[in-house]
Design a protein that fits this description.
InterPro entries: LRR_dom_sf (IPR032675). The protein is an alpha/beta fold and 500 residues long. Helix content is 43%, strand content 13%.
Length: 500
């Protein structure tokens, strides 16, 4: 029975492995719980959000206990003060559970013992060497800020061969990646932070040798108006050859010339997740490529700073598996240029969603407050019954944004939601272009009683008024509203996007 209990506990703790706030208290319940939780916590003890690792003396003590015999003479000579009692045995062989290295976090913990760079470097070297011996297999490696050629350590070859996830940056010398490319050829998830305007040919080589790359992420963290060389070309040409395995592509650009990506993008035919945070203006010829390219397996699309017709084309060619269409409505290029184009493109967008996305669960949408758009939006809600989350923005390109018009738009929107809102809808993020009168708001909430409790987010401060707050609190108490929160525009847009 005890074994069964431990198995059940293990399955429960597995589900909570990224929730440190829930797992840490479990250590204190009893010995069985503690023995079950420790191996899970120590798979990747460097990753937990909300922890200030610069104050985690307990982690520094554990590292010091492991290293005490190797560094005793060194710390004595350097007069480094280590915690007392390091010659005592540990309750667990913590490093035997470890499957990860996070250079930055580990260095922060080691700096607790000494502030001198030389001392830190020496202890780091000893620690990484030991971890390569103790860690049975290495799955995750965040090597940003690395200073040690760890692939020269004993056992490094075997450990690196099992690596599944790698996070790095372009400031690391190319030679380091040439070294890694000899052993790390089965990386499935690769995240690159671009810190330099110069190309890193080592990263291109690392991509080139991969045999099962599924997830690729590029984040620009550097801007330079005067690029002498294209830092992207070799990287993405190497990535193009991984189209047979790549199913997740996330790109956050600051200054890329979009032509290269526009040429390569249609070739990634196995994508399930496509996220591009950059302005890409497609020519008619490139749009034609998108129209004929079918993304059979696409489940999530998020392309910002773009035209609605571009996103509509991708939706149409998605293979009918899309579950998330996430965009920033305030950054749609159509807005503010041509009223007719925006009106037609937004109407077409709504139609493409309900025609091609029967399984859609999360949707960001923007359209003008016109009768035919409300009619088509209501049709979308009736067809897409799996919808769980909506971000709605009404954008009227005609300059008649008065309080009265906002109330009229709000009344129409609430009418559509109450008449046709899907039974699974549990979250609505209200953007701009409408406002709810106190009476319409109360009528809507009263009629929503028979449905699931709503989480509501808004950018309009009117709902912070005392009369609105009183009404909201009433329906919170009745269980109609699960939560209500005022957000900035940028937070409203990013609420679901950040979870990708």
């Amino acid at each position: 029975m005890s074994e069964l209990n431990k198995d059940i506990l293990y399955l429960i703790f597995e589900e909570l492995q990224e929730d440190s706030k829930s797992l840490f208290p479990c250590l204190m319940i009893n010995r069985l719980w503690c023995e079950t939780v420790i191996p899970i916590l120590w798979r990747n003890p460097w990753c937990y959000k909300g922890i200030n690792y610069s104050n985690k003396i307990s982690l520094f003590i554990i590292i010091s206990c492991y290293l005490f015999d190797d560094i005793k003479e060194f710390v004595t000579n350097q007069k480094i003060q280590l915690p007392s009692g390091l010659n005592q045995s540990l309750l667990f062989d913590y490093f035997s559970y470890c499957r990860s290295i996070n250079i930055d976090t580990i260095n922060i913990i080691i700096s607790i013992g000494t502030s001198l760079a030389y001392n830190q470097f020496f202890i780091q070297q000893k620690f990484y060497n030991l971890l390569m011996k103790k860690c049975p297999e290495l799955k995750y490696f965040d090597m940003r800020t690395i200073k040690h050629q760890i692939f020269y350590f004993p056992e490094a070859k075997v450990r690196l061969e099992s690596l599944c996830e790698l996070e790095c940056d372009t400031s690391i010398d190319s030679s380091y990646f040439y070294g890694l490319s000899q052993y790390c050829q089965y990386i499935q998830r690769l995240i690159i932070v671009n810190m330099s305007p110069k190309p890193n040919h080592g990263i291109a080589k690392l991509i080139e040798v991969q045999k099962n790359l599924k997830h690729f992420e590029w984040k620009d963290d550097h801007y330079d108006d005067f690029l002498t060389e294209d830092p992207y070309e070799k990287i993405f040409l190497a990535l193009e050859k991984k189209a047979d395995s790549l199913n997740r592509l996330k790109i956050y650009f600051q200054y890329m010339n979009g032509t290269l990506l526009q040429e390569i993008l249609p070739k990634f035919y196995k994508l399930k997740i496509l996220v591009i945070d950059d302005f890409l203006f497609f020519t008619e010829e490139q749009l034609e490529q998108l129209r004929i390219m079918v993304y059979h397996e696409l489940e999530v699309v998020n392309i910002n700073f773009n035209q609605l017709n571009v996103i509509s084309n991708i939706i149409e060619n998605s293979g009918r598996y899309l579950k998330k269409i996430l965009l920033r409505p305030y950054e749609i290029v159509d807005l503010g240029f041509d009223d007719f184009d925006f009106n037609e493109n937004s109407l077409n967008f709504i139609c493409k969603v309900y025609e091609n996305c029967p399984s859609i669960e999360h949707l960001s949408i923007v359209f003008p407050p016109l009768k035919r758009h409300f009619t088509e939006f209501e049709k979308l809600l009736k067809i897409c019954q799996n919808l769980k989350s909506l971000l709605i923005v009404l954008s009227n390109t005609v300059d008649n944004e008065t309080h009265e018009n906002f109330l009229k738009n709000g009344e129409e929107l609430l009418k559509v939601l109450i008449n046709s809102g899907p039974i699974n809808l549990k979250e609505i993020r209200f953007g701009n272009g409408f406002r709810f009168s106190l009476g319409n708001w109360e009528e809507f909430l009263e009629k929503w009683r028979i449905r699931r409790a709503l989480s509501i987010f808004t950018v309009d401060r009117i709902y912070m008024r005392e009369d609105y707050t009183k009404l909201i609190n009433k329906y919170k108490g009745d269980g109609v509203i699960r939560s209500f929160e005022y957000l900035r525009h940028v937070d409203l847009d990013n609420y679901c996007i950040n979870d990708l």
